[in-house]
Amino acid sequence: MIKSVSVILALAAVGLAQSPQWGQCGGIGWTGATTCVSGSVCSKLNDYYSQCIPGASAPASTTTSAPPTGTSQPSTPAGALPRLGGVNTAGYDFSVSTDGSFKPPYSVPPASQYSHFTAEGVNLYRIPFAWQLMTPTLGGSIDNGFFSTYDATVQSALNSGSNVHVIIDLHNYARWNGAVIAQGGPTNDQYASLWTQLAQKYGSNQRIIFGIMNEPHDVPSVSTWVDTVQQTVNAIRKAGATNYLLLPGSSWASAQAFPTEAGPALVKVTDPLGGTDRLIFDVHKYLDSDNSGTHAECTTDNVSVLQTLVSFLQQNGNRQAILSETGGGNTASCEQLLGNELAYVKSAYPTLAGFAVWSAGAFDTSYVLSVVPNGDQDQPLWTQAVKPNLP
């Protein structure tokens, strides 16, 4: 496991401040320490972010340098998710409102994107869908026509590479047509019915990860939401599925709010399989001024937020989380700051299992957060910030 991010900066023998293990030590615009404490090496992750990465018997570096040839990546601990990196491919969530209502039509993400991105190193796709499309009647059966279309997309992603994982993401904000699950809206049984059916369809494929709900927000009772999560986990396991499950908190699945809001209760959710290795926390964090993901410019790299999250997870059973939504515009500020963020995520494995940026799929290149290729040409944000930090 990586060292606690709250460790105090060490002082070199000559009295000069040095960056701690996993601390930043260089990059364009960096004005802090450029040397590392003994036992870690200042390693260049991209032009904007160099980091003190532990190395056996390695002296502290005095310059920003690339990792030595042949340096191994942290191994995957038994039972943990492997290191993942990739992209959301939206379309089946068009147009789900943040109140959980849905208005057709939807769009099918282009299948060609999966082979394109996988060839560049992507091994994770998050494919959101509207609850109302999957089960047009609340608590009813899955619509076989829609499922066939959706599953064809899932299979296109999986077939693009032998190590590719897919998050099937229920994109309804803990709601159905304006009402919160178990808090004036659908019952827990109606919600669990959907996941029971999906578990029966996808439970035999361990490369499929269940994203049980996108961005719960403004829930009247966090404890009631956590109980809903527990009941859903139980239902999925009762259906025989052993897949990894992504558990979201409240406040739009905020990575910043997680340690003090829903996190302390969610870490107590149990898995009927035993242990908690297959219960992964689902967090989001954007980089614009109001964390909405609606502006082309970025104002933060979120590293301090993610450091706090990592510390919380390590102190609560060495749990894993995945940053399943983040992103920015194709601007210089986002190229730098998103690059910093994703470099930190990559360095914080296994506590942070990986990321999926928003968004490709059925968007076009004019969308403010688009990483949709322009033909075979990648967007600048993808080239400068995302691609260098893929697994």
From TrEMBL:
Q: Is Heme among this UniProt entry's keywords?
A: no
Name the chemical reaction catalysed here: Endohydrolysis of (1->4)-beta-D-glucosidic linkages in cellulose, lichenin and cereal beta-D-glucans
Q: Does the keyword Hydrolase apply?
A: yes
From the UniProt record, list the coiled-coil ranges: none
Q: Give, as one word, the top-level EC class.
A: hydrolase
Q: Where is the CBM1 domain?
A: 17-53
- Compositional bias per record (Low complexity), positions renumbered to this chain: 60-79
* InterPro entries per UniProt: CBD (IPR000254), CBD_sf (IPR035971), GH (IPR017853), Glyco_hydro_5 (IPR001547), Glyco_hydro_5_CS (IPR018087)
GO MF, any single term: cellulase activity
| Documented EC number(s) | 3.2.1.4
Domain of life, per lineage: Eukaryota
Q: Name one GO cellular component term.
A: extracellular region
Family of this protein: Belongs to the glycosyl hydrolase 5 (cellulase A) family.
By what name is this protein known?
cellulase
Q: What is the lineage of its organism?
A: Eukaryota, Fungi, Dikarya, Basidiomycota, Agaricomycotina
